Amino acid sequence: MAKEVDIVVIGAGPVGLFTVFEAGLLGLNCVLIDNLDKPGGQCAELYPEKPIYDIPGVPFQTAQEHVDALLKQIEPFNYDLVLNERVELINEIDHEDSRFWEIETNESTKFITKNIFIAAGAGSFEPRRPANISEPDTFLNKGVAYAVRSKSLYENKDIFIFGGGDSALDWTIDLAEKAKSLSLVHRRDAFRGALHSEEKMRELVASRKVKLLTPYLIDSIEGSDKVEGVTLKNFDTNEIEHHNADELLFLFGLNKKLGPILEWNLDLSGKKISVNTENYQTSVEGIFAVGDINDYPGKLDLILSGFHETTLAVQEAYKRIYPGERVPFGYTTSNSKLQEKLGVKEK
Fold first, then answer.
1. Are 229 and 243 in contact (CB under 8 A)?
2. CA 5 to CA 115: how far, in whole Å?
3. Cα–Cα distance for residue pair 70/307, rounded to 1 Å
4. What is the rounded distance in angstroms from the CA atom of residue 239 to the CA atom of residue 258?
5. What pTM was computed for the model?
6. Which of 145, 186, 259, 323 could disulfide-link 164, Cβ–Cβ 3.0 to 4.6 Å?
């Protein structure tokens, strides 16, 4: 059964998270939908340790610290977070004698709303597959994964992690104590992740809690109904080696794609969605685009620009929900009820 919400936000990056705050100020509820396994979008997935300098009033913050601060900021407000799912279909429907949108994900999760906010950054993210393996998704959820959804799945298992970035290093460190055995496989003995993560990984290798296999490349996946083993090619010797394996984690990063957005009959400008600058609504009434996914004259791909855009878009969303009513705008510095909700104590 579809749940009715005021705003469905597609994308749980910084701008999507801030939408919850602005909606909460007006008493609106949201659901955030993201096909990643955690909130934060590109900031959390691609460069969590990268410093951000252009957030007003915050001289320095890593990308992950910025995401954590946004999550803390929206704690007082009513919202749901749906992860590991991608919005596939949107349909305009008649509901309670008015026009609404019905949203359905690839997992058949459904929501009904008057307002859709597309805050998908540069588009939806799809995990990169190993290029030299034919149909690795044959073993998807049967020993092959592109993200860790439950750490308990990897307890006492023979695990192979493929990749050389932050995700590969972080999960190697995190799962090393839980696994029966853990091998990190990379095509070269140099890594793109944070230096302190690489140092921690090499400490685990030295203590024999992790086996580092470089320079290696996956050659094949072995098994019938589930993963039973893997063969690896050694670049130095060109030899093929067999290893028993229960779980394979491919952490090669993400590809950016517009995906199903292309089928929603929205006016596009290249690979971005055209919007007006009055309320950042698209060519389709009730669908807004905020953040890096949108385009208009003078557009700058900055987080702070996305914050401004979604603030104005939420005002329009309120008008669509409560036609004819005045938007209850008020400064947070002078609204005692709001300060109480946010947990602010007067000095």
1. yes
2. 9
3. 11
4. 40
5. 0.67
6. 186
Cα separation values, 330 from 75, 217, 267, 336, 345, Å? 20, 58, 34, 11, 18
Distance CA 86, CA 35 (A): 5
Instruction: Count CB-CB contacts under 10 A for residue 297.
Output: 5
Give the list of residues 6+ apart from residue 194 with CB closer than 8 angstroms, or none.
49, 166, 169
- The SS3 assignment for 193 reads coil
Q: How would you class 210 by CB atoms within 10 Å of its CB: exposed for 0-12, middle for 13-18, buried for 19 or more?
A: buried
Which residues lie closer than 8 Å to 299 by C-beta, 6 or more apart?
Answer: 305
Residue 295 has which token pair? Answer: 């385009």
End-to-end CA distance of the chain: 47
CB neighbours of residue 96 within 10 Å: 8
Strand (E) positions, 69-167? 79-83, 87-95, 98-105, 110-113, 115-118, 124-127, 144-145, 158-162
CB 110 within 8 A of CB 4: no
CA 80 to chain centre: 15
Nearest to 82 by CA among 126, 145, 16: 16
**Burial per residue of 52-84, b for 16 or more beta-carbon CB atoms within 10 angstroms, e otherwise:** beebeeeeebbbbbbbbebeeebeebebebbee
Give the amino acid at 299. K
3-class SS of residue 176: coil
- Whether residue 327 contacts residue 35, with contact meaning beta carbons closer than 8 Å, is answered with no
Distance CA 337, CA 164 (A): 49
Burial 322-343 (b: 16+ CB within 10 A, else e): eeeeeeeeeeeeebeebeeebe
